[in-house]
């Protein structure tokens, strides 16, 4: 039954493929169907928070939400690898793993879980990005070539290991997304985005307004990944913006 459901989902995704590579499913595991809902909508990037607990990678935002049947392998790795092997990934190209426990305990488990699939990950150019608790930037190079890291503006790191840089929007100023974005804030954000692009990296901002005005502001300043908890709202908006 699971194989039939996955086949139907893959067929639908291929037919409905659209250029939604900027769409990033924030805290994706909180949705009724982790991975599948965002993938079916055509999202380019999906985020999962993980905790290392007794040798297992459990998925959840807080420790009290964790359970053994909600683990990274079952919720994300297995379905993603099936999608890649079936050549049905469409615009989906990135899994961002936010490590909530120490890098020493979490990163080795992530690498071990993904290592059997290293060839398909490399072949497809699929991006595994480690965020949250990470090693020291000087240690990034010690990880396999198919593992990359989520950089910060105040860090110095090996360019080859950091393709994505992320920052909180609150670092630049506050905007609730009600009414136009303040001009001064927009200019600060645009300058930051332009600098990251000049350094050859993609940009993700978090703590952004999860609203239509928020999405449009991020598009205007050139942000590469627009995070949302409202999957359908963002997907519909990006499709609309492309059709104009």
Polypeptide structure, described:
The protein has helices at residues 2-15, 36-41, 72-85, 103-114, 118-124, 183-198, 212-221, 231-243, and strands spanning 23-25, 45-53, 56-59, 94-99, 127-132, 147-151, 164-168, 202-206, 225-228. It has eight helices and nine strands. The N and C termini lie far apart (40 Å). It has an eight-stranded parallel β-barrel, surrounded by four helices. With 244 residues, it is an alpha/beta fold. Helix content is 38%, strand content 19%.
Layout of secondary structure:
Elements: H1 2-15, E1 23-25, H2 36-41, E2 45-53, E3 56-59, H3 72-85, E4 94-99, H4 103-114, H5 118-124, E5 127-132, E6 147-151, E7 164-168, H6 183-198, E8 202-206, H7 212-221, E9 225-228, H8 231-243
Parallel strand pairs: 1-2, 1-9, 2-4, 4-5, 5-6, 6-7, 7-8, 8-9
Antiparallel strand pairs: 2-3
Largest sheet: 8 strands, parallel, barrel
Spatial shape: globular
Which percent range describes the beta-strand content?
15-25%
Total E-strand runs: 9
Uncertain ranges: 1-17
Distance between the termini: 40 Å
Strand order, sheet with most strands: 1-2-4-5-6-7-8-9
**SS field, number of helical segments:** 8
Name the average pLDDT.
92
Topology as a string of helices (H) and strands (E)? HEHEEHEHHEEEHEHEH
Rg, please? 18 Å
Class from secondary-structure proportions = alpha/beta
């Amino acid at each position: 039954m699971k194989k039939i459901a996955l086949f139907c989902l893959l067929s639908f995704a291929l037919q409905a493929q659209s250029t939604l590579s900027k769409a990033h499913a924030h805290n994706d595991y909180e949705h009724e169907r982790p991975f599948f809902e965002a993938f079916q909508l055509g999202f380019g990037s999906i985020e999962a928070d993980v905790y290392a607990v007794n040798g297992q990678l459990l998925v959840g935002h807080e420790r009290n939400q964790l359970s053994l049947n909600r683990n990274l392998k079952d919720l994300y790795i297995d379905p993603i690898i099936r999608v890649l092997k079936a050549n049905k990934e469409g615009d989906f190209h990135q899994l961002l793993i936010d490590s909530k426990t120490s890098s020493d305990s979490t990163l080795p488990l992530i690498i071990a879980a993904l290592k059997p699939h290293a060839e398909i990950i490399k072949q497809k150019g699929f991006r595994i990005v480690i965020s949250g608790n990470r090693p020291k930037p000087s240690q990034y190079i010690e990880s396999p070539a198919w593992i990359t890291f989520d950089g910060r503006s105040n860090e110095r790191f090996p360019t080859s290991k950091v393709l994505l840089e992320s920052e909180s929007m609150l670092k630049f100023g506050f905007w609730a997304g009600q009414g136009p974005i303040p001009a001064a804030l927009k200019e600060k954000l645009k300058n930051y985005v332009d600098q990251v692009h000049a350094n050859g990296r993609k940009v993700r901002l978090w703590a952004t307004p999860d609203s239509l005005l928020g999405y449009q502001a991020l598009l205007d300043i050139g942000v590469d990944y627009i995070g949302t908890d409202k999957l359908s709202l963002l997907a519909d908006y990006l499709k609309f913006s492309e059709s104009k």
